[in-house]
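Translate sequence into structure tokens.
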Amino acid sequence: MGKKIQAAILILLVVLASLGCIRETITDVPAPEVYGETSPQISSVTEEDIAELRTEIAELRTEIDELKAVVELQLTRITELEGEPAVFSQESDPMALSLAISDVVQRVQPAVVFISAETGMMRLGSGSGVIITQDGYILTNNHVVEDATKLEVTLPDVPSPFDARLIGTDPMTDLAVIKIEGNFSPAEFGDASKLRPGHLVIAIGNPLGLEGGPTTTLGVVSNTERSTEVDGTRYYDLIQTDAAINPGNSGGPLLSLDGKVIGINTLGGEAENIGFAISANTARPVYDALVVSPHKVFRPWLGIGFRTVTPDFAAQEGYQRNTGVAILSVQDGSPADQAGLMVDDIIISFQGDEVIVDTKLIKMLWSHKVGDEVELKLLRGGEEKTVIVRLGERPEGL
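Result follows.
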């Protein structure tokens, strides 16, 4: 949104400037001859004046052509920027930034809900969610709704809660979909792949069960493609941010400045100013899978245990490469086993894209479907090998 506004302002200034030049030139032109009656001003015009005027008109035409090129360039840039997270300079344009954030919050806040989960007579806890469709499908965290026998959803400025039903869950990404009945204002997914460290983001949720509607916090993207382990489960493709994500924020949206959902807030770090959100590029396909029967994610599987190769680990194991993903185990009968992958192989590329860390491997793997054939390039004992693996379906419980 910020870049579009800046480009639009530039175009407007260009047009106004060109109009100003034309107006000044027209003002300087002598009064015309009217049906044979020559004005006193015209009679004083010399051949030199006419030649000078023609030169000025020619120069003005050249300037107008140049201005047209500038306008076309800016219009092209606006088209290229479609869908990019908006970027503002807080130092040079603080008022525009403040207004943009306020506008985003006002537009998206009606889609941010408070979720209360109960089992029997015992309340389990609460969290947040974001309405994705007009008919009431809500994306939230699995840990917010897991094992609940009763779910209630409260909307901002709506006093009575809605009964909700669980549609599907995906513990591996800590995502779940629930549904309420009615007609609502949904939020819209954005493209998290465009995020860069330093981009401003907005977190909205219901921390600590505070009354009075959702809470908004502002922060920056600290990094992307993070992974972290919680209670024995490792989560991948996380956006790290310093926007406050407190208990109760879980399941709420992380927004770009154009109001698009680029992440689902999932947990705060153990240290201050560290929070994580599940990337929208991971969340969206999970959501798409959960809303249709059989309401589960069919996740592709290689059947290997692995870890990122670091210089220290490479020295310890005697590897000849300091980056990549080392295979620690191969499950019998798995796709990796059938393709001939071995322990101590180092995966260095996946479908032609370089693999440096395990989070990259997981992200690329999850971008494919069960049954897809993928090309892996390996380093085995100092020799590069290329293998084709047909991806299987991840077994239940793994």
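Note: DSSP finds nine helices and 20 strands in the chain.
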